[in-house]
Amino acid sequence: MTRRLQVLLDEDRYARLEKEAARRGTSVATLVREAIDAKFPGWGLTRAEAARQILDGEPLEVGDWEDLKEEILTAYDLPLE
């Protein structure tokens, strides 16, 4: 970590953070970093961007649908129709 941030909190908010940090066995700072990451995702792909990349990709050759369906049903231990 290279940047320091000072945030003023009321007693209730800080107590909630301390309680959750203790429950998880982590630090308040880790909880704050996790909350930032959850609210403001980093440089990774958004869901829409990831979906677009998948949809823009070359089609996959999956073979015969009946064979594929049987393989899927067998993998999930479902009755073959």
Characterization of the model:
Helices cover 58% and strands 0% of the residues. It has 81 residues and is an all-alpha fold. It has one domain. The longest helix is centred in the first third of the chain and has 14 residues, at 11-24. The chain has four helices and no strands. The chain has helices at 11-24, 28-39, 47-56, 65-75. The radius of gyration is 23 Å and the shape is elongated. Helix 1 (11-24) packs across helix 2.
Strand content: under 5%
Tally of distinct domains: 1
Distance between the termini: 57 Å
Task: Kindly state the number of beta strands.
Answer: 0
Q: Strand count, sense and closure of the main sheet?
A: none
SSE layout and pairings?
Elements: H1 11-24, H2 28-39, H3 47-56, H4 65-75
Helix pairs in contact: 1-2
